[in-house]
Each structure stands twice: as C-alpha cells, then as structure tokens.
C-alpha cells in the first residue's frame, strides 16, 4: 500500500498515561483502536460504559464516530450499544464506549488494555436550516422503508 498522503491532526490527551495512544492497526485502517482502562465482566445482555482514558479535540467540521469491532461482534456477540457513538467537536471529556454483550449465554470479560472499539474521524456538515413550504420533486418522492422491494435475489 502507498504511504498516507494526507492526514488530519487530532489532538489527544492521555487521561490514563498507562495506556498507549490509540492507533491504526494497519496502514489504511479507518478506525483508531480504543482500549479499555479497566476490567469489566459483561453478563449476557449486560452493558457497561467502558472508559478509554483518552480525550480528543475533534476538529471543527468533523465528528468522532465510535464504531464496534467486527471481530468482537462475530466471535463474542459484543458490540457498541449506541453505534456509532457520536463524539462532538466541542466535547473535551473522556471518550467512553457503551459496550453490550448480546451473546445469549456467554459472559464476556474485558481486560484493561483490550481494544474494545474504534474511533473514526469523519467530516460532517453543520446544517443551516432553511424552512420552506414545498420541497423539490424527485423520482423517489416520499416512498421509502422498502417500497422498492424486499430482500432476496429478486428483490422480494
Ligand atoms: O459513544 C460515545 C458517545 C458519546 N460520547 C460523549 C461525547 C459526546 O460529545 C457526548 C454526548 O454524546 P451524545 O450527543 O450522543 O449523547 P446525548 O445523550 O445527546 O447527550 P448530550 O445531551 O450530552 O449531548 O458524549 C462518548 O464518549 N462516547
Ligand atoms: Mg447530544
């Protein structure tokens, strides 16, 4: 893979100096892996707000997006309850991960230092609302929620 040609500066404060900075596991990865500051046991169906020990200064025009790790979901049924979590650019507190164990039978053990989620830095527009009486016409109009067909090879 070619070297990164562009990256956005992201200020980070380590509230827990014992943990490494969040990092991309591979060049080209979209998410910085976030680690847990403490041990947690999640019984089936249980959730926990897991500290990451990191506070960020998300640049204006961006949002920090807290995503699940697909390996945790596939192997253990563990995901981020509010996925994707929204870290506002004005937020200066510790980023926390609302981790939930959806496995019906197996408890899940988080250990300090485990990578529990990933943070994506995503451009986001701020809307300036313009109230109107009529919206512009389109081919779709107001159809949605499956109006174009269901699932399956033939569109259902
Ligand atoms: O997964 C997440 C989601 C949010 N936050 C922090 C950063 C974010 O800026 C703040 C508020 O999040 P959000 O707007 O999603 O929550 P809310 O329920 O609307 O709370 P508030 O009224 O404080 O905005 O909480 C996290 O640390 N992790
Ligand atoms: Mg909010």
Automatic annotation (TrEMBL):
Domain dUTPase-like, first and last residues per copy: 20-149
UniProt KW keywords: Hydrolase, Magnesium, Metal-binding, Nucleotide metabolism
Reactions catalysed: dUTP + H2O = dUMP + diphosphate + H(+)
Cofactor or coenzyme needed: Mg(2+)
Entries under Gene3D superfamilies matching the protein: 2.70.40.10
Pathway this chain belongs to: Pyrimidine metabolism; dUMP biosynthesis; dUMP from dCTP (dUTP route): step 2/2
Signal peptide: none
Binding locations of substrate: 69-71, 82, 86-88
Enzyme class: hydrolase
Pfam families: dUTPase (PF00692)
EC number: 3.6.1.23
Purpose of the protein: This enzyme is involved in nucleotide metabolism: it produces dUMP, the immediate precursor of thymidine nucleotides and it decreases the intracellular concentration of dUTP so that uracil cannot be incorporated into DNA.
Family named by the database record: Belongs to the dUTPase family.
Protein name: Deoxyuridine 5'-triphosphate nucleotidohydrolase
Designated gene of the protein: dut
